[in-house]
């Protein structure tokens, strides 16, 4: 029997990692999830197992603990790693920057070092559209300039991209791809995995679903006086399963040896959607209402950002497929599942 290619998914119990683990298994890969559950729950791993019918391996490890992470490399023969393990709360990164630099840089530097030390090859890194800041021209392409980061979180994304680029350049044995995600939303169609924010959600869609579920009283729409068609900000909301599939496509490219040794791809839909449009679409497709009010602008928000996805479409043979309607139905189905609403 042919050996399956094994993939380490660090941070794989989290929102994007768990959906990616499902798509990897369904594409025929062996998966090892490594996570310290600092921002996730073991139920996500159980969800991955239920969806795939495969007893996906899970290791409880802090990627910042170099000795423990090293042992994981001894124990598992993966040749590729997808690194999701990071903290992601922008506001918290401003008030506690060292927490972010230590975890996001420390875990990634350990990964890169250990991949090299153990002779493993392919590294896929979770970057973000935040690297573009307030772009001068839209949509942004991978050649659009990165803007100085406005938060320590955003800075860790830029720094990790640079660490990967420089390491691949210096060490012939490594290959790297950074995927710049736009705004991931929604949940798996099974409603067995989805986003599990701790405390008050900072992101728009979980705030909408929790308001619709009666957990939050009222959604604040941060600003209706931006220079956009309806005055609210524009973003590129990408379905979580489509995003997960982009990882499979990027991994296949690295394994197959196509392209340059270090590459960057935008992963979005290419379509800008306003905050008002998103809320109204959520209400329409789910037949529920979302109590809302207009509130002042949120500090640090960019007016508009959306992706030119032609590079990923062409080179990865990937494109976003799920409609916004279906994605927002899945977000609501997941919220209801979490709350035991049906
Ligand atoms: P998440 O918090 O749901 O997942 C991250 C996972 O990493 C969690 O399960 C957490 O427990 C784990 N983790 C954190 N530090 C760890 C460590 N030191 N050792 C082991 N495990 C650790 O977040 P997510 O939304 O799935 O994001 C995944 C990645 O994608 C992050 O790097 C994030 O910055 C990046 N990203 C996310 C978004 C988004 O909107 N969700 C957008 C752009 C980029
Ligand atoms: C935010 C982060 C970004 C990070 C991404 C994913 C900031 C400034 N940016 O992106 O770095 O990569 O999350 O974690 O925090 N909105 C409301 N009401 C709400 C919540 C949001 O109106 O209660 C609006 C925001 O103003 C924004 C849009 O909804 O216009 C999307 O917000 P959000 O989901 O937080 O994502 P980003 O700000 O795009």
Based on the model shown, name its key terms.
binds uridine-diphosphate-N-acetylglucosamine; globular; 7-stranded parallel β-sheet; Rossmann fold; alpha/beta; 342 residues
Model description:
The protein has 342 residues and is an alpha/beta fold. It has eleven helices and 13 strands. It has helices at 15-26, 42-52, 66-75, 90-95, 97-117, 152-170, 204-212, 240-256, 275-286, 310-316, 324-338; strands at 6-10, 30-35, 57-60, 80-83, 122-128, 175-181, 183-185, 219-222, 234-235, 237-239, 262-267, 273-274, 292-295. α2 (42-52) links the parallel β2 and β3. α1 packs across α8, α3 runs parallel beside α5 and α7 (204-212) crosses α11 (324-338). The longest helix has 21 residues, at 97-117. It starts with 5 loop residues before the first strand and ends with a helix. The relative contact order is 0.14. The protein binds nicotinamide-adenine-dinucleotide and uridine-diphosphate-N-acetylglucosamine (UD1). The site of uridine-diphosphate-N-acetylglucosamine (UD1) has 20 residues, from α7 and β8. Nicotinamide-adenine-dinucleotide (NAD) binds at residues 11, 13-17, 35-40, 62-64, 84-86, 88, 103, 107, 126, 128, 181, 183-184.
